[in-house]
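Notes from hallway chat w/ T.B., transcribed later so I don't forget. T.B. wanted the structure written out for a chain they're using in a teaching module, and asked if we could keep both sequence and structure tokens in one place. Agreed to drop them here.
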Amino acid sequence: MTVYVPDTAFFVEAARRGFPLLDGSPFWESLARLAAQGRLQVIDKVQAELDRESAALKEWLEEHLRAAVVSTNVQATADSLRAVMRWVYAQTDVHPVAAERFARSSAVWVLAHALGAGATVLTYPVPEPAPAYLMSLEVACRAFGVPVAFASDLPSTGQSLSAHRSAAGSSRA
């Protein structure tokens, strides 16, 4: 059973760009269904960012995904976070400010949790190459062999919810 860990951008960009928070929306219903099946884990760091981002998203998350919120205060996440942080600060092809911003964001926790849990990251795509001031979560996931899926992969869009972008091979850094 594949478990999905969405980042903040997944929720924010989905709500802004094509999946408004409407009752009966197949997109949002599919997220609630994944959560009910135990296949969606929203980490506490993402919940905290969403609480500050949007009253509507905060309310929807509280109503539909409360049981899917998980703590990042677990050993597997902590162990993975150490490896992820070493990787972030070892990157020489991104601006140091980009690395620092990434290290302080919930995205680093999403990756660490997904890596520790053997899960797939759900995000909204960043154009590649990413702007110099951004470190791409998708690129970071690829470095660790963590599969990535996008909002457009959800069943409500007529496609399957499958990780279609991942690092070559299945080994994890």
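Follow-up for T.B.: The chain has a mean pLDDT of 85. Might be a good example for the class.
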